[in-house]
Amino acid sequence: MAHGVNLLIGTKKGVFILDGDGRRTSWSLRGPFCESWPINHVVADPAAGTIYGGGGNEWFGPAVWKSTDKGRTWSHSSEGLAYAAGKDPIKSVWSLARRNGHLYAGVEPAGLFRSDDDGQTWRHASGLQDHPSRPEWRPGGGGLILHTIIPHPNDENQVWVAISTGGVFYTADGGKTWEPRNKGTRNDYNPEGQRYPEYGQCVHSLAIAAGMPERLYQQNHCGMYRSEDGGKSWTSIEAGLPSTFGFPAAAHPRDPNTLYLVPLNGDVLGRFVPDGKMAVWRTRDGGRTWQDLRAGLPQENAYLSVLRQAMATDSRDPAGLYFGTTSGSLFASIDEGDTWDCIAQHLPIITSVETFSTGS
Amino acid sequence: MQRRGVAPALVTVLLPPALVALFPGSQAEVEVTASNVDDMIDALNDRWHGMRDRLCDSTPSIRRHINIFVDGERAALQTPLAPGTQVYVLTAMSGG
Prior knowledge:
The complex is a heterodimer of chains A (360) and B (96). With 360 residues, chain A is mainly β.
């Protein structure tokens, strides 16, 4: 019998976990955890069964929470998760990634931290902030946040990060030095003639293609893109989509040509799905053509938004796809997006969705 | 003449429920020996590791939405503590 799938849900008021059965058709909700702190990202280490939640509380500041018993009990730490005295203090943890024994945390104001002791203590990977572009990074609507961390699947020295607004940065030496990787991504907010800068773009999310670590996908404030060279250059893949604006990008767990996006109606008209009709858009050919997926999703008066970390796939075959909305609904598809069900609603604002398999 | 509060003093600290909930085994009322608020937070951190990070940011100062009152006045890290003082640690009114 197949293992169950667990959905890790970060919200503005704590972590929730949806436990699914082996068929992914029956779900039960647990939570809120983490003392109902605002939690921006929840990830799991499936090998160890450990769950980590990164966030920040207005009273008590930033922390990474951890559970080693599948979410039943939690502890927190922020030891070392701090900039030097006199600098703007960290407000919140925005993104987490676990790879090769390292736990990475992206924070606001934008910076990268690493823990080598399973989240007990943290060390600033200061090379990123030493980049000469740092004084020109500017906060976007969500703040100056490092919101995406993609460790290379086979080389622990290579990491991509995404900063709003600073752009995509890449290191090949474990974080000592970084280079911007934004060539070909547009910044519509710059004057004409300056719309393709070296850095400063408002990247919204990144995804890495399965089995092709040089292929990256990007949802930007201004367009959707694919890179075939680890982000050195980007090609627009927005033709055929209803807008150039959205937040999440979720890659298929096995097929490098399949990507899912949620285009919204632009950045000035409410940032919800076009015409109040919910759709996830799927490409099967690396972004050359797109198909809108609507079966089972609300098609009337649905003024829904999906935030940058709030869509994820599972590792099953066929792949499951899940997204959470700012209005607290969780939708699931167990047939790669063809059909959908609402499996939870009335949750707080959903900031992130990730999956892991029980027992895997 | 010795400046008031420079010598370590036994004080009573009253902690807010939202903070106590973060540290298993902690309690809402605790006695510590400290000469000022900074020392007091160190003493709390010695008992419940990590509590300093919850009360202070890295600038370093008391967090913006944490209020610490000494003798009815909002205190800073260097505010001295006299023997017998009751120190109130309060979460500010905020939310949404």
